[in-house]
């Protein structure tokens, strides 16, 4: 019965088109009663859709996604508390805020990156509130990790001050091996610009010689 149900779901999804890219195979439907918008998971950010990665794993289109009830800041300091770049002057899909201190503002992609790296230590970067903040982020579609903070695991493996020095591409093409690195050219080693805990040879990840930044799959 399970196999038959799975096949039925696949057949039905093959008939539905994504409202973001308009291609067939959209398997995710908005959970709002009466809404028939469907989309692919990779298309969700472009369509400003929200998928909640807990409980029933509900998904919502841009019109019916949950909204934050964060008040306007009196300071009007419209900078991201994580990257310090400018954010919108209002709460939106791309600009989020802390429900506890009502002061922190951050880009969605910045808080998502922080959540994955912080793991079980994830909290507001300003007021350090954890439980209400974490629940709010889950509701708004931020994925959390149950792992220890990435910087703790890196410090446990790599001695303080020692630079990561190996290629972590799924397939390393370097004749000299993963730990071989050259000053320039295809075998130059590029570290992740966000965590510096993973690296890749330029050639192994098809990076051009003019590429100055690269991010690992986790980031």
UniProtKB/TrEMBL annotation:
Any one GO molecular function term: ligase activity
Domain RING-type residues, every copy: 80-127
Coiled-coil segments: none
Matches recorded under InterPro entries: EPHD, PHD-type_Zinc_Finger, PHD_PHF7/G2E3-like, Znf_FYVE_PHD, Znf_RING, Znf_RING/FYVE/PHD
GO cellular component terms given for this protein: nucleus
Residue span(s) of domain PHD-type: 1-65
Alphabetized UniProt keyword annotations: Ligase, Metal-binding, Zinc, Zinc-finger
Entry-linked Pfam families: PHD_G2E3, zf-HC5HC2H
Ligase is among the record's keywords: yes
Record protein name field: G2E3 ligase
Organism this protein belongs to: Dryoscopus gambensis
Lineage: Eukaryota, Metazoa, Chordata, Craniata, Vertebrata
Chain's gene name: G2e3
